[in-house]
Design brief:
By secondary structure, the chain is of the alpha/beta class. Helix content is 27%, strand content 26%. Strands 5, 7, 8, 9, 10, 17 and 18 form a seven-stranded mixed β-sheet that branches. It has a six-stranded parallel β-sheet with strand order 13-12-11-14-15-16, sandwiched between helices. A three-stranded antiparallel β-sheet has the order 4-3-6, with no helix packed on it.
């Protein structure tokens, strides 16, 4: 495995000039060209530390998010001026360290928060840095800057977190999506034990929500999912929660018009599912829109129902000072919840990326993760 460096490696040039040329070290990466909507496995220049507050991470595992598929389809905003490396969920080993980095040392096992902020705007200074107009989603690693679908990634040091010994790399790669779940949890809280909860969608996010709800003591939980395969994945979690199809859910409501839920977490991004969820909310119920819908998706909700029932609707984007919470949650949940086979996660080498995307799009797996470093976890 090559090691990144800020200096070039010299190799003799085979031309007839008699001069020596210098070739820069390279790495393998998946690059997305937003102008052509194409993804290609290529060799690209290794990142080098320029700023004293940077860290270069040798990537071990990198996740494929549903957002990545939306980006490749052209239905989610990303940088549009040049090809770049996708992947905003990743972990690895700190390979090179800037001179002023104090909290991380070379060789540390780390996870990366892909979000950044300016630190000075009204959103940052009021504790809402994830809404920073010059940061947040607008500068996310793997969406607007080079990300983790590569052997190495250069990261601002403030976005790098050292992993506790108890957390494996396979668990740590889930820290970014779980940090978003932690942010959503803060928004919908308090959620008293005994509350009735509906989770729409049993993809990886729905399954992670299922695990978190069970881990925190909730038992009155229903999951709605149209895919038989995804329902099977959710049932493997052995939570005892009811996992049913949307039609079965409608039948429950038809047989008992008073049936409803105190919280619905939509992980589907499907407009019709969201509309149905609103009709199922109890008075003073909460709707958490967690799944990423198409920017063109529209829903129809009666304002009178929001007024009459005193409903609350939350939108959730990226994490808000919740990355450390996610690492603590991972440590608490452990292998009993974060088991790849139960969750429907499959690991692929980077050169099998097309197989990974095909399996995701066909619904055969709930999540694909690239392993970029040979050897054990």
């Amino acid at each position: 495995m090559p090691q990144p460096t800020s200096t070039s490696t010299s190799t003799p040039d085979s031309t007839n000039t008699g001069e020596k040329r210098f070739s820069k070290p390279e790495m393998e990466a998946l690059q997305f060209d937003p102008r052509k909507k194409t993804l290609s496995l290529t060799k690209t220049e290794l990142p080098a530390i320029i700023d004293k507050h940077e860290v270069i991470v040798r990537v071990t595992y990198a996740g494929v998010c549903g957002t990545d598929l939306h980006i490749m389809d052209g239905s989610f905003p990303c940088r549009g001026d040049r090809a770049f490396i996708l992947g905003h969920e990743f972990c690895g080993v700190a390979s090179s360290i800037g001179a002023e980095v104090k909290h991380i040392k070379r060789g540390d096992r780390v996870a990366v928060d892909p979000q950044s902020s300016c630190g000075t705007c009204c959103y940052c200074t009021s504790g809402r840095y994830h809404q920073c107009p010059s940061g947040g989603l607008n500068t996310t690693l793997g969406i607007f800057n080079n990300g983790g679908w590569a052997q190495f990634c250069k990261v601002p040091a403030k976005q790098v977190y050292r992993l506790p010994e108890a957390i494996t790399f396979q668990q740590a790669v889930l820290s970014e999506p779980l940090s978003c779940v932690c942010h959503a949890w803060d928004l919908v809280s308090p959620l008293p034990i005994g509350s009735s909860v509906l989770v729409c969608g049993a993809g990886i996010i729905g399954n992670l929500w299922t695990c978190v709800l069970h881990h925190t003591g909730h038992r009155n939980v229903t999951i709605s999912e149209p895919s038989t395969v995804r329902r099977t994945f959710n049932e493997r979690l052995n939570t005892g929660f009811k996992c049913c199809s949307p039609d079965e859910l409608k039948a429950v409501k038809a047989s008992n018009p008073q049936w409803g839920v105190d919280l619905c977490v939509d992980c589907s991004g499907n407009g019709r599912a969201i509309e149905e969820a609103v009709s199922l909310l109890n008075p003073c119920g909460k709707l958490c829109i967690f799944g990423v819908a198409s920017p063109n998706e529209k829903i129809s909700i009666a304002p009178f129902e929001i007024f009459r029932k005193e409903l609350t609707i939350f939108g959730v984007t990226i994490n808000q000072f919740s990355f450390q919470k996610a690492l603590s949650l991972i440590q608490a949940m452990g292998a009993s919840y974060l088991d790849y086979e139960k969750l429907g996660i499959q690991v692929f080498p980077l050169d099998k990326y097309q197989e990974a995307f095909d399996a995701l799009r066909k619904g055969l797996i709930s999540k694909a993760i690239f392993k970029l470093t040979p050897g054990p976890d």
